[in-house]
Amino acid sequence: MVLNQADLSRYWPVDGEKFSEMHDRRALREILAEGLEELSGFQKQVLTLSFYQGMKGSEIAQQLNVPYGTVRSAKFASLGILRKNLETKLQNYGFTQGYSSNN
User: Fold this and answer.
1) Angle at 59 (CA atoms; ends 57, 60), nearest 5 degrees
2) 86 or 71, higher pLDDT
3) What domains lie within the chain, and their CATH numbers?
């Protein structure tokens, strides 16, 4: 059973703007998770350590026992791949304004 905003408001009263914002955040999290799954294991690991763990490139290189340049290259390449994939997914989900790297 799929509940729409009117159905939800009976059980969980929120105004339309808050409902829309919550839905947008959930959709964006799902899109980001899907985008991360499309990266290689090493690329995903570098981004996870960098953005979720807050590690610097030199710390990531030391932890993964790879050269610093490899970490930088992987991060740069994976962000490009992620950006391209996410732009497509965002447009498919209807998020077109303000999410393009061409802006």
Assistant:
1) 65
2) 71
3) 5-93 (1.10.10.10)
- Length of the chain as a residue count: 103
Decide: residue 71, CB within 10 A, 0-12 exposed, 13-18 middle, 19+ buried: buried
SS3 60: helix
As a whole number of angstroms, the distance between CA 36 and CA 3 comes to: 28
| pLDDT band of 34, cuts 50, 70, 90 | confident
What is the C-alpha separation between 12 and 22, in angstroms, rounded?
13
Task: Provide CB contacts within 8 A for 101, sequence distance 6+.
Answer: 83, 87
For residue 70, the model assigns a pLDDT of 97
The pair of structure tokens assigned to 63 is 């932890």
The stretches of the chain forming alpha helices (DSSP H) are: 5-11, 16-37, 41-47, 57-64, 68-93
**6 pLDDT higher than 80:** no
